[in-house]
Amino acid sequence: MNRTVRIAVGSIVIGILVLGLKTLAWWLTGSVALLSDALESTVNVVTAVAALIAIRIAQRPADQDHPYGHHKAEFLSAVLEGVMIIIAALLILEEAYNGIRNPRMLDAPVAGLLINTAAGTINAVWCWMLLRQGRLLKSPALVADGYHLLSDVVTSGGVLVGVSLAIVTGYAILDPILAAVVAVNILWSGWKVMITSLGGLMDQAVSDDLLRDIRDTISGQAEGAIEAHDLRTRHAGSRTFIDFHLVVAGDVSVAQAHAICDRIETALKRRLDDAQITIHVEPEHKAKHSGVLVI
């Protein structure tokens, strides 16, 4: 079991623990806001399981039916997480609406707040770890799970404020109103997760900064060639795909052209160790006098 899978399993364990704490807090208080927090934690557990399944699929080696590998499975999981976040927000809005129509004072508010604070603290620590490790491991599923938990942390913070205000002021309606405000924030978080993940499914190119580094690396390592053109990039999970045409002079031998390609690939993999690189060598008359010029 590698580190990515271990973290995904840890998310399930943490999710179940936090769900139990938040459910207990809601049961003690009857708070609509705390119920909304518990509903989102239910989604956390479901999406953590989906992330684990996607990560296991994404790590399968390429086969006859999937010659480029299974890396995009993580993007599918991230899209699912975005959908589940939005569904959770809509459920919370429904509970908030019912609470606004029929506000009620809370039972055992102090105990409920303390338990919810403990659950929120656990989520905050795990959220930080997921985002940090997800970026280091280049795992879209872990990063999406981290952003999902971040929305849960914000939810817990808003809930604590709302319930505290309801207790201090005696205005029970503040509890469901804060739940509604938090739900709107969760909707925005779910939308961002979906848009980012859909970009990966649609073969979105690498960032401008990374593309600039790739172009500079090709230019600096292609001595003996004339130019590189039709450079294309895309992400698929943790893998980066790079392909381009390399133009060489007519008197360059196959062995010499191959050596240039090897030098470029080695340099690119020092920059992106997970890169899959395809170089198509062309004769001089195919030059377009554009793209990446050799230094």
Automatic annotation (TrEMBL):
InterPro entries: Cation_efflux, Cation_efflux_CTD, Cation_efflux_CTD_sf, Cation_efflux_TM, Cation_efflux_TMD_sf, CDF_Transporter. The chain crosses the membrane at residues 7-28, 75-93, 113-131. Gene3D superfamilies: Cation efflux protein transmembrane domain, Cation efflux protein, cytoplasmic domain. GO terms for biological process: intracellular zinc ion homeostasis. Residues 207-284 form the Cation efflux protein cytoplasmic domain. Keywords: Cell membrane, Membrane, Transmembrane, Transmembrane helix, Transport. It is found in: Cell membrane. Its main location: membrane. GO terms for molecular function: cadmium ion transmembrane transporter activity; ferrous iron transmembrane transporter activity; zinc efflux antiporter activity. It is a multi-pass membrane protein. GO terms for cellular component: plasma membrane. Signal peptide: none annotated. Pfam families: Cation_efflux (PF01545), ZT_dimer (PF16916). Coiled coil: none annotated. Residues 11-202 form the Cation efflux protein transmembrane domain. Belongs to the cation diffusion facilitator (CDF) transporter (TC 2.A.4) family. This is Protein p34.
